[in-house]
Amino acid sequence: MSKLSPMSQPFALEYRPPQPATPVVDAAVGGYTPPLDINQLLAPVRTGLQQVETKIKTVDESVFAPLASAFLELIGSGGKRLRPALALLAAAIDPATIDAQTSARVVALAAAVEMLHTSTLVHDDVIDGALLRRGAPTLNATWNRGSTILAGNFMFGTAAHFSAETHNPRVIRLFADTLRIIVDGELRQLAARHQFDQAKESYYERIYAKTASLFCAATEGAAILAGLPEAAIQQLRDYGYHLGMAFQIVDDILDFTGDERTLGKPAGSDLRQGTLTLPFFYHLQQQREPARLLQQLEEAQAQLDDGEPAAWQTLVDETVAQARNGDAIVAAQREAEHFLAHARAQLHGFPDNVYKQAMLGLCDFVVQRTY
Q1: Is the pTM of this model over 0.70?
Q2: What does the pLDDT read at residue 1?
Q3: Residue 22 in domain
Q4: How far is the CA of 357 from the CAs of 33, 84, 91, 341, 346, in angstroms?
Q5: CATH assignment of the domain containing 317
Q6: Theoretical Cys-Cys bridge with 237: which of 39, 112, 162, 220, CB 3.0 to 4.6 Å?
Q7: Domain span at 105
């Protein structure tokens, strides 16, 4: 399939389905054994991440005080800062000289990506009615729905402001296009809830929009700001795409295999909300009578709509347990590993420095993580 630019092609054409699982070998990096500690992996860009942290925690004094407080709490509770780290690593992977002005613009992009990610989480919590995220109360748990949505909108605006600080029209357009793709994907996911007979292909479109598109924005945008050649920009975009797809697949696996202590929510939460993910599709594929399971889900969901949740809860619990104990999880893990093999291959030809090693290490971290 030909390469497609996110700035010239519509969403439906941007998604690229996985190819058959043939091995992808990069002999230059095959023996690399990464540390499992994410902090060690991101050590090469620690200074840049500190600059991003300072930037995203700066709030204008004129901002409504409760909003400013909630904003800082949300940002302060951020996780691994993986997305801004990807931008910083991608910008530094080539030994080309990056001056102070370019570095500042890369930090602005990294802050924009992290702020956009956080704002989408705020809106996701409103859509899902979530009161906890990773075991901590969400803004949705303390504010009313309207106020929470507006807080998310404020963060969207802040993200856009940061993207403008890159002073690069191509990067600004990439950022705007990524926002469009994310919203488009959220609408598709909402429309597809409880549609149990949907095509598996729709899953890949959703996770590209939800997760991989932002990984792409981080790596491609940074490569553009660093002034890398077009071929290198495309390679780094493809790295972000494949890493992001694998990251979300692993998230969806953990939703089946984790527990409330590690996930901050019950196992099978996605299926409980009617969202179908890769482990479910593999579980369905392995059924002797897939149509029977689909009919059971539709009947139980109809009872749920009528105010009788018992059958639905029982069926979801049974389905999650069966998928966990069958071959569905292994099949999904293999697919994540396949995406990661392609991510590693995109780094072939770049200098073998600490930034490349960190990006290779992130591939191993993604598939091995438990949270």
Answers
A1: yes
A2: 33
A3: no
A4: 10, 17, 14, 15, 13
A5: 1.10.600.10
A6: 220
A7: 38-368
